[in-house]
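Open question from group meeting: does this chain pack into something compact, or does most of it stay loose? Before anyone orders reagents, we agreed to write out a predicted structure and look at it together. Recording both the input and the output here so the notebook holds the full record.
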Amino acid sequence: MSARYAKLLFITGMVFVLTSCSLFGGGSDKKKEEKEKKETKAQGKKEDNSIINQELKKQYEMYNEIIQYKWQQEEKLNKQSEERYKKLKEESEKSQQSKSDKKESSDKSKKKTEDSNGSSS
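Structure tokens returned:
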């Protein structure tokens, strides 16, 4: 009976040892695999983030280029409108001068006719 008791005790001890190893220390390979999976996922996320960041940077640069282009176009339009305004102003001044010159000449001619009419009366 002592042999049976010893075998039973030995088997119980081995079961206890194997169970405790699998629960506490035997799963270290699984833990390593899980850590590796987490690390690969983290690296994948970093790569995804870097790709997203690159795309965002490209879009931001494109946005800035568009804003700069619009600004340049507005400057061109402002310059053109200023030039048109100056030309129109010069033309209106010229036309006013020519009108005033015509009035002066017509006034002078009227005075001459009045003078000639007045002296003959």
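Observations to bring back to the group:
DSSP finds two helices and no strands in the chain.
Residues 11 and 74 are 91 Å apart (CA to CA).
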